[in-house]
Amino acid sequence: MAIGAWILIALMCVFWCEVESKYMVYNTTSKIAPGKLNVHLVAHTHDDVGWLKTVDQYYVGSNNSIQGACVQNVLDSIVPALLADKNRKFIYVEQAFFQRWWRDQSEAVQETVKQLINSGQLELINGGMCMHDEAATHYIDMIDQTTLGHRFIKSEFNVTPRIGWQIDPFGHSAVQAYLLSAEVGFDSLFFARIDYQDRAKRKDEKSLEVVWRGSKSLGSSSQIFAGVFPENYDPPSNFNYEVNDDSPIVQDNMELFDYNVPERVNEFVAAALSQANITRTNHVMWTMGTDFKYQYAHTWFRQMDKFIHYVNQDGRVNALYSTPSIYTDAKYATNKAWPLKTDDYFPYADRINAYWTGYFTSRPALKGYVRTMSSYYLAARQLEFFKGRSKVGPNTDSLADALAIAQHHDAVSGTSKQHVADDYAKRLSIGYEETAKVVESSLASMTRSSSKADSGSPVTEFHQCLLLNISYCPPSEVDLSNGKNLVVVVYNPLGWKREDVIRIPVIDENVIVKDSGGKEIESQLLPLQNASLAIRNYYSVAYLGKFPSATPKYWLAFSASAPPIGFNTYFISRGKRPVIATASKSHVVYSSEEKRSDVIEVGPGDVKLVYSKNQGKLIRYINSRTMVKESVRQSYSFYSGDDGSVDEQASGAYIFRPNHTYHTRSDGQASFTVLRGPLLDEVHQRINSWIYQITRVYKGKEYAEFEFTVGPIPIDDGIGKEVVTQISTHMKTNKTFYTDSSGRDFIERIDLGLYIKDDSKELSVLVDRSVGGASIKDGQLELMLHRRLLHDDNRGVAEALNETVCVQNKCSGLTIVGKYYLRIDPLGEAAKWRRSFGQEIYSPFLLAFTEQDGDEWANSRILSFSGMDPSYVLPDNVAMITLQELDDGKVLLRLAHLYEIGEDKDLSVMASVQVKKVFAHKKINEVTEMSLSANQGRAEMEKKRLVWKVEGSSGESPKVVRGGPVDPSILVVELAPMEIRTFVIEFH
Amino acid sequence: MAIGAWILIALMCVFWCEVESKYMVYNTTSKIAPGKLNVHLVAHTHDDVGWLKTVDQYYVGSNNSIQGACVQNVLDSIVPALLADKNRKFIYVEQAFFQRWWRDQSEAVQETVKQLINSGQLELINGGMCMHDEAATHYIDMIDQTTLGHRFIKSEFNVTPRIGWQIDPFGHSAVQAYLLSAEVGFDSLFFARIDYQDRAKRKDEKSLEVVWRGSKSLGSSSQIFAGVFPENYDPPSNFNYEVNDDSPIVQDNMELFDYNVPERVNEFVAAALSQANITRTNHVMWTMGTDFKYQYAHTWFRQMDKFIHYVNQDGRVNALYSTPSIYTDAKYATNKAWPLKTDDYFPYADRINAYWTGYFTSRPALKGYVRTMSSYYLAARQLEFFKGRSKVGPNTDSLADALAIAQHHDAVSGTSKQHVADDYAKRLSIGYEETAKVVESSLASMTRSSSKADSGSPVTEFHQCLLLNISYCPPSEVDLSNGKNLVVVVYNPLGWKREDVIRIPVIDENVIVKDSGGKEIESQLLPLQNASLAIRNYYSVAYLGKFPSATPKYWLAFSASAPPIGFNTYFISRGKRPVIATASKSHVVYSSEEKRSDVIEVGPGDVKLVYSKNQGKLIRYINSRTMVKESVRQSYSFYSGDDGSVDEQASGAYIFRPNHTYHTRSDGQASFTVLRGPLLDEVHQRINSWIYQITRVYKGKEYAEFEFTVGPIPIDDGIGKEVVTQISTHMKTNKTFYTDSSGRDFIERIDLGLYIKDDSKELSVLVDRSVGGASIKDGQLELMLHRRLLHDDNRGVAEALNETVCVQNKCSGLTIVGKYYLRIDPLGEAAKWRRSFGQEIYSPFLLAFTEQDGDEWANSRILSFSGMDPSYVLPDNVAMITLQELDDGKVLLRLAHLYEIGEDKDLSVMASVQVKKVFAHKKINEVTEMSLSANQGRAEMEKKRLVWKVEGSSGESPKVVRGGPVDPSILVVELAPMEIRTFVIEFH
């Protein structure tokens, strides 16, 4: 029927039809129509787990002056909306919100929701606590936060989410594709943000939907069907129906004015056909929702009901209520082959000069805090397991929750507002406080010998030093003149025996260190420099509200070792230091010493750093063992952040948009000092008034450690600055660099490390948190360490990234203290360090302190312990990334092969772990292999896996080797390169 | 418990309490607590029946880019919200929306809603189709629109609204208090907008709540308890809970951050106590809602649930779900005496220099259209009754509905956006089109003699001329040279016999007029002036889309009479006009005639207007019968509207804010022409290029009629203008003037008329629509006729009041053609004219035209008819303001006494109407006296009426005399001064 006629009828009715108005029933029963273009209406809301408001504020709907958003409304209103019509469907994603809401519901509502989930009307997808970032997150955190959500869903609803739904993160990683999608058993993965030029090309080629093989090592065994949305995750324009949205509603009441059914149907069909033009098969998905929508779900469903009714009446296309699962099944059912995607979707630019790479470094303090807590959580769960988990607490749950939330793509990414960043930190802090109690009581219990009758003695109070990074450790800053011993329990969360130099602040030079056998061991005192003390004092006042009571004079360094997944004990007591240390400071050698040469060589072991004497600058890296020798310069520069005055694209929390590079210039405060000793040498350099650097070279370690102190970045010139350090060599690298998630030739984020190589050497850098990095000049690496900006980059956060710290209302720019590690190896020999030492950086020794009189402790306590069989360690290529007692008393174990295929000639091979020896103290009843998020049996998951066809590949994909099934009698777990295997273990 | 402790507990819980979260049940059962301050939470939404969007757009939620508002959401969401907790309550007001929604509901929902209404959870108050304006509305329209809503509520729900709820109109009239509140049986009336200084005083004196006696004549018999809100009709600040509102929510979940129950309870108590300080008794009302709120009702109720729960737990005050009814009953139960209020609440200023008096004249064309349609609707219902109402149509329902909506306080008030004003006009036009069919078919049927056997002859096609005001009447602009007669049926909707001069445009001078007896009667031709033709042509093209086909040369005037509630027939045919008219134009005498005098005297009868010859200006008004003679000047001026540059208060749709007065100056186009004749004289004056005036003095009528044509008001000087006419005399009036709702000494609105008086004379002015008026200088009256402004006055409409009319995209300012009437009487003798002629202005003759051959019509048709007994007319002081057949076949009759006590020495007395003679053609079965809105028996209503005590009055109020009960056998209705009595009559 022509539109003209429709309108005429409508008008006529306004005039004359005495239409007896009646209740309109819409036909929403449509399913997939084989011969037609099917428009899958996927009703969804995207609820950031913190961004402009905190997660709790979003949940309860407070602080609406910042953003009108209340997730409680969404979930409250979705229930009656789904009940009103059983054809309606909705997906919900963020479990942090869902769990908050679930706890608030009556049993009756819970029962209803269970039915809605059962019937598929409400589908929980993605299913982690948040939609984690994919750049600044560590994969262990991604796994943990996903597991937390998935296991809740499994236990409450007996459901396993089928779909990855990473619609908002700012670029997409290979790890997300192969690990957090394929390995958790998802059937597909959907997202929106890819490079704008890539998107344009994919639209042209109809390759927005692909089969993505993210892992070279695991290949087709962990591929996933992955769809990029044509534009964003909103509905097509003019189809938004939140309360007060201004898209035209379907006015189908002929008794009222403005009847518009034909126009709206035409617009719907046009938008569907337009999308069909860039999509393979006759299925297109409309994402019907966006950020914090469905606050009154009825408003959306009322319009979708009408569209489905009238569009299907029209008949040109078929509209239906759908979900990504239904959509995926429909795609799969077409039996088509899809383009192959390898690699990742980084970096993300949404238009010219708008690379979302600034956030790889934004809020480096938060990024560092998250990484520290992540590691601590891993260790704490081991200790919680050893002691036995307490349901009523304290336990590690609140840290688990805080960490999970911190993985959100506006949390660790650094793209939230300041008050929200503070909220994430507060949650981590609260979680840490509780978890520290778990750790301390577990160690107290483990050190208490059961054979000795000291069960009546008071519970030991252990203390820990979270703020060692600012040289603050009250438990070690104690007066030992009364004959007390400072007991230091050194816990090693790794599955390997391990030795490392420990540094703790002490107030007295007359201290000696003894091992658990009572034997004094070598130690070294390093005078605490003024720069460190200044930071210590300022941040103590700022964050703890008090000036430190003691003032330590030295760092006491000694080399400690600990068994795998176990601890060792050291004792610090007052004592005369051995001869070499008698003359106080005689071991401290200042740079003025090396008079005869024009260079200064630093490092007590095989690795030496060579500095020019007159300029105090690093010029060479030497490893006398491997004979590697490379000219190396290291310097600091900063980019001036664009203020947006040219094209309204300023540099900001998301986007790195420099307009100039400046080398830092010494501003008269430059200094160069070397401290030498038996265990390590330190080079202290004041680069300028706001950059300080300590370079450490250890006797037994073949790398250099750079500890930088950057800040407060000055902004009194009105210019925001982004501070980088460059490491320059003569290597011919073709500007190519490699990160732990396959780098590109522009700014890239680094979660663990990066390296460059030429035909003979590899230069590797490892970091202590995620940072941005690049190789812009040949032979050079660049890390972005800190950013302080004065403009918003117009992607929603609406704040300049200008972090400050305040004392008595006087605020100054935030100072960042962090570390990175440098090593140069012969070509092909670097992976070992990157992988193994990378694991050590992630999981440092956990230290606990207590004071005891004389030798009482040594005589009555257990001084050394390993969770594993004393004769056993994990293979060098395997890490235990999860050991956790679950709610039901079973234990979750994850083992990860650390090497890719071909990465190392010895270690890129199948590994085996003897589970019985791992749990030497327990008797295993049953071991069940699970999906990565431990919400289903692995076998069951594999059975359900969809086998997608890949374009151009003739039939079978190359066979990927993975570890074989676990024989229940011998319990040996095989791990192929890059494989992670997850088990739930039941003990007798 | 101290707040400090609360917060501590909250914080502690975040850290440590392993609170098992559970579903929170709030205690909302609270009723009135006698010993406490009771905070009545009245959940409400205020839904304008058109303002920034049209009524239908507001209902369906379209056009949200203008304003996010969807009434469907409100009513959809309120049902589950009320079902969720039986203690929750809600009031709904605007029946235009409620009826739209009701028609859309399923039977199940309707049944649920009926139960909610039955239980009192959902209370329908006010209950008219809209919340009518109280300044620009005619009381008959107010009654009709209220009746429409009230009868729907009665028939669907068997409920009579108890409360007047005029919370938004811009000032409040006495008529609203005594007529539309007390006489419809309301127990109280609430509103928000009164003069800011009055409000301040009333807060001081705790006199926001009063007993209001609006009628001098009806006194305490129609008083009402009336409450002004302390500020507006919003909740106290920080207690707004629409989706996305930013008031702090009650965060009572100790597991989440920002727990704030103590703070919020304190704020609640503080706000309650603050209101208690300005309120008598221990009951305060919180209006929990505002414009278009409760789109997701749940968001409000969730917070109110919490407040009631925690505030009552706190115990300092008592919070409860309430309604204005419960609140009123609580106030009444205190048995306190209240301050007495007489008079009205006009004008309304919300701050200095912000008098909401502009809207008394804003959109004069719409105001005129509404008044014309109101009168037409009254007449049409009489004709519909005579013919018998058709349920399936055409009937008068759509006009009833359009008129009802047009009474909204942003409709006839002129304060809507232009597109919405167009919508009101469109609805009236559609209503008129259908109603015209009722009128035409009724007249066709009534003129058809039942005794003669012409039932087989074709149905007569009558035509009407709505556009006579622009000299456009195709049915009369016909060629009668072929011997056809133009039949003119003249219908008189008044209950009195009546004679009036009719003017119709004709194309030929050779026409004569015959009465129903075939006798030629006196007539007069007046040449149509160019000014009138120009308007006719321009507006025909603009509004009808075509240039008129014929061009009339003359107005044909003749005096017609018609019986009460009946018609008479006149015939116009080609014929030689009597001698006096032979010499064409000999009866037209131009001003040049009176050569010998320096004045020109105009008027064929007793009233003469005297003009100065040299200036062409009115100088004197003479009535030779009454010997009244008064010096009178009449002129035009305009105010320049303030542009807001000084204090951001521009003149606009709401507010009259002049910054200067200018007399209109002749711009070279001034002219002065007198047309004389036997029936009337016309003085044509071109005042300037955009003001034209025709003054008419009729032989048999003792007043002067001024027809003004104002516009397009020029704005090329960038200045908005507000055009007034002044009538100046030498009367000593102390600047006091009187309008039909008790005037004040500033700009006041006029619905019907106004007058001034000195010790011997009264000068009265009657108007054809509501206008603003004032008496600023002694002896002078001023009427505001038209406004064209260039700035918005910042009260929400966000448009300048700049009405234009466009032809082919070329727009110019809207021209207004209107009339006012002037008469000067001896003191004490003016009321008769004001009251009786006022009724004639409101209800002019309704004219219908048809063409017939020769004398066929006269021979075969009924030529004259009265609905009443031929011997009977209504008393001079009584008007029949409603005669309407109801849906059930019964008839609604309203009789109104037109005079106040003491207004006229003869007519301010008890009147009697013989109902049997009114319905001479019918046999009455039963007459039931009803409330004014006809939704309950009058006796039942009076029995329920609350008897409020008035402060200072010792016991009994003075006895008010009202008409006595109607004896069913004789059926005589007594009416005391100003009494309106409403009956439902059942016929055999």
Automatic annotation (TrEMBL), chains A, B:
Q: Which residue ranges does the record assign to the Glycoside hydrolase family 38 central domain? A: 354-428
Q: Which Pfam families match?
A: Alpha-mann_mid (PF09261), Glyco_hydro38C2 (PF17677), Glyco_hydro_38C (PF07748), Glyco_hydro_38N (PF01074), Laman-like_dom (PF21260)
User: According to the entry, what is the taxonomic lineage of the organism?
Assistant: Eukaryota, Viridiplantae, Streptophyta, Embryophyta, Tracheophyta
What is a GO molecular function of this protein? alpha-mannosidase activity
Record-listed E.C. numbers: 3.2.1.-
Top-level class of the enzyme under EC nomenclature = hydrolase
What cofactor does this one take?
Zn(2+)
Q: Which family does it belong to?
A: Belongs to the glycosyl hydrolase 38 family.
N-terminal signal peptide: 1-21
What is the protein's name according to its record? Alpha-mannosidase
Q: Which UniProt keywords apply?
A: Disulfide bond, Glycoprotein, Glycosidase, Hydrolase, Metal-binding, Signal, Zinc
Q: Which reaction does it catalyse?
A: Hydrolysis of terminal, non-reducing alpha-D-mannose residues in alpha-D-mannosides
Q: What does this protein do?
A: Liberates mannose from p-nitrophenyl-alpha-D-mannoside in vitro.
Task: List GO BP terms, alphabetically.
Answer: mannose metabolic process
Parts of the chain that traverse the membrane:
none
Q: Which SUPFAM superfamilies match?
A: Families 57/38 glycoside transferase middle domain (SSF88688), Galactose mutarotase-like (SSF74650), Glycoside hydrolase/deacetylase (SSF88713)
Q: Which organism is it from?
A: Theobroma cacao
Cofactor binding note: Binds 1 zinc ion per subunit.
